[in-house]
Design a protein that fits this description.
Mean pLDDT of chain A: 87
Order of helices and strands of chain B: HHHHHHHHH
Largest sheet of chain B: none
Largest sheet of chain A: 2 strands, antiparallel
Order of helices and strands of chain A: HHHEEH
Low-confidence stretches of chain B: none
Shape of chain B: elongated
Number of strands of chain A: 2
Distance between the termini of chain B: 46 Å
Number of domains of chain B: 2
Strand content of chain B: under 5%
Number of helices of chain A: 4
Oligomer: heterodimer
Mean pLDDT of chain B: 83
CATH architecture of chain A: Orthogonal Bundle
Shape of chain A: elongated
CATH class of chain A: Mainly Alpha
């Protein structure tokens, strides 16, 4: 039986992919920097955290608070990590996108 | 070289509007980016985005309370227009209680009048919330006490505003202050319950 997963929005999908790419260094600043490199658009920290909170509620990411550092005014970093459910949701999204792409012949030649 | 500081008011606003569990890491990230060369304007923009998103998230997570408050406000506004309520309001006991402090010296008479009406408005709030908490197993005497004070403050502020605005506006202010008192009381009781359980 297929596992029913929560819907993954476009921005959530991008954030989740960045969290997986950054691995052990996935916290607010590098996530937003990576999103800017990938999309060419500035992602505000507020929207990144809002997406991460939604992903946490869906069980796709977990987070841990590191020790506070003086470089950040004594504020701790919150590191995020994708869960197995999160990786499964990405696979489901990719499969859905691939199926949709197949139905549009003129987009076939697009190479990344 | 002078050391730049982020806009203090923006940081204070963030402290005020965002709960601690989400605030610390976010604030650290803001300060880190500011130290990398971002402008004060950027910090303000980020803080405003965070606040707007927090308000939207609050509405999303409290949809049940908002729906209950809309229904409760409508029911109570209708109740206040019934003949039963008019009989209770015009009864000699209520009228003598109402008139008791109004004859006193200024400003005590005004304070009494405002408080009396606020207490009268608070009674249906407490009754409605007793139902809400019983349904959701959130019943606590502390919540009842907090609600009493929240409602008193909301209705007193509402009545003070009513004095200063044209009469046509006061028609809308009563349901708005009632709705706000209900939503804030329910949300605070649920948040307090979540804080206790964690």
């Amino acid at each position: 039986m297929a596992v029913r997963t929560a819907y993954l929005g476009e921005f959530e999908l991008m954030v989740l992919l960045v969290v997986i790419r950054l691995d052990d260094d996935a916290y607010g600043v590098p996530i937003s920097d990576e999103l800017k490199i990938a999309t060419g658009r500035e992602a505000s920290l507020g929207s990144v955290y809002a997406a991460l909170e939604r992903l946490t509620r869906k069980g796709y990411v977990t987070s841990r608070l590191a020790d506070p550092t003086p470089q950040r005014g004594g504020r701790a970093k919150r590191y995020f990590q994708a869960t197995a459910e999160g990786e499964c949701a990405i696979e489901t999204s990719r499969a859905a996108f691939t199926r949709l792409w197949r139905g549009i012949p003129r987009l076939k030649e697009v190479q990344l | 070289m002078t050391r730049r500081n982020p806009p203090a008011l923006a940081i204070r606003l963030l402290h005020f509007c965002v709960p601690f569990c989400r605030r610390e890491a976010l604030l650290g990230d803001l300060l880190e980016k500011f130290a990398q060369g971002r402008s004060s304007h950027w910090v303000w923009r980020e803080v405003l985005i965070v606040i707007v998103l927090s308000v939207c998230a609050w509405f999303q997570t409290h949809l049940g309370e908002i729906a209950f408050a809309v229904i409760g406000t409508t029911l109570v506004q209708l109740w206040w227009r019934t003949s039963w309520w008019k009989i209770i309001w015009q009864s000699s006991t209520v009228q003598s209680l109402c008139g008791w402090g109004v004859g006193g010296p200024f400003p005590l008479s005004v304070i009494y009048d405002l408080s009396f009406h606020a207490v009268i408005d608070t009674v249906p709030i407490l009754a409605l919330l007793a139902v809400f908490w019983s349904i959701n197993n959130l019943w606590r005497w502390a919540s009842l006490r907090n609600t009493f004070f929240i409602s008193l403050m909301t209705f007193t502020v509402g009545q003070l505003i009513m004095i200063t605005v044209p009469p046509v506006c006061s028609y809308f202010l009563s349901p708005i202050s009632f709705f706000l008192a209900l939503v804030i009381s329910m949300a605070s009781s649920r948040d307090a319950d979540a804080a206790i359980s964690t």
